[in-house]
What we know:
This protein is mainly alpha-helical. Helix content is 68%, strand content 0%. It contains four helices and no strands. The chain has helices at residues 5-28, 33-58, 69-91, 101-123. Helix 1 runs antiparallel to helix 2 (33-58), helix 1 crosses helix 3 and helix 2 crosses helix 3. The radius of gyration is 17 Å and the shape is globular.
Amino acid sequence: MAVKRSTLVYTLVGVGLGVLLATSFQARLTVHPYVTWLAGFSVITWALYAWDKRVAELGKILRGWRVPEFTLNLMALLGGFLGAWIGRAMFEHKTNVREHPQILIVLITSTVLHTLLIVRLLWGPPLVLWPPEAWLSFFSSG
């Protein structure tokens, strides 16, 4: 299965800009890196929703410049869920559940997963990434 060029380009640009923005936020702010990650990806995800809505409104003029749903879903999963929710509400874009059911599913899943991670970071024991056996104790109390 070949990946469409627009999917590859938008995904690389979206993820790259998300990382770049999160990194620049982290260099200027004294907050947890996860906060800047969520902020950076939310801003870029919101911008992708805005861009896609504008291109959709222009119709045939920029038909090949639409942001693929794969990219929007990936950006939400990577931490841009807040930007996706805001973008959907502000631009009334991708809100038809019958046409775009996977976007709503991904947004809900992403929101729940990131909320669990935020709760764990705030009130749980520190996350241990190595050794891999520690991954199974993610929800343990200590």
